[in-house]
Amino acid sequence: MLLEIKDLDISYGDSAPTVQDVELSLAAGEVLAIVGESGSGKTSVIRSILGVLPGSGRISRGQINFAGQDLGHLSAEEWRRLRGKEMAMIFQDSGNMMNPVQTIGHQFREYLQTHSDMQDTEADEMAKDLLGRMHLPDPDSIMASYTFELSGGMRQRVGIAMAIAFHPQLLLADEPTSALDVTTQAQIVRELMQVVRDSGTALVMVTHNIGVAACMADKLMVMAGGKVMEYGSAASILDKPQTAYTKKLLAAVPEIGGVRYV
Ligand SMILES: Nc1ncnc2c1ncn2[C@@H]1O[C@H](COP(=O)(O)OP(=O)(O)OP(=O)(O)O)[C@@H](O)[C@H]1O
């Protein structure tokens, strides 16, 4: 297994664990969607995998194993080598993670050079190649642009291009489509699926949209109140949800002409 989480509790400060008893496993190339209402603990779970829990957040129990390593015992240097290279994160709005007063090109080059010893021209060529692969037209003009000059969908494509630069084994995505309109959401979902198919990357994606989860995921985890309500094959959970909570989530998906679009 590429990723294995056992008995995971996450606590903020000294209070009782906010997230409890998370268990999951993911093989190379598999897609897991974590769904649930706001505050259910979805983001905490993926942030714990990347070792970037906010504020006083910490893993208070359990284990996360990734590619044969126990992430609870990594040194700062080992984390630095892992992040960006072996696992990378895609955020809800990649534009927010970038500097508004530096061009995309400048930031992309800096990102590539942080993780490699590439010279400027080599880094620029690689960045343009990655932008082209994400179907962004005219990579030269994207490189010269500032984040505010790009649409939300274009910014997400830039974020994904950066995240896949070093062929990570695992991508973590936190609501990667929720800031986008429905048409652009579908395009970004397609881009992500293509990345997963082309490079055998595993993906853990947090979404409140069970429709997006249904069309992408091999596995599904439904969370509520910091606990796992259901976890398993996406097809079987969507077909036969076991808990009232999952049924409620599914019932909230709109029906068109009697067909439910999940
Ligand atoms: N920085 C923080 N400091 C203290 N508590 C936090 C912090 N971040 C999250 N929490 C706690 O963890 C709980 C779960 O938050 P989390 O962001 O993981 O949920 P979520 O399901 O991803 O919600 P959302 O969909 O709104 O992002 C919160 O309700 C809060 O109690």
From TrEMBL:
One of its GO terms (cellular component) is plasma membrane. Keywords: ATP-binding, Cell membrane, Membrane, Nucleotide-binding, Transport. It is found in: Cell membrane. It is a peripheral membrane protein. Residues 3-250 form the ABC transporter domain. Pfam families: ABC_tran (PF00005). One of its GO terms (molecular function) is ATP hydrolysis activity. Belongs to the ABC transporter superfamily. This is ABC transporter ATP-binding protein.
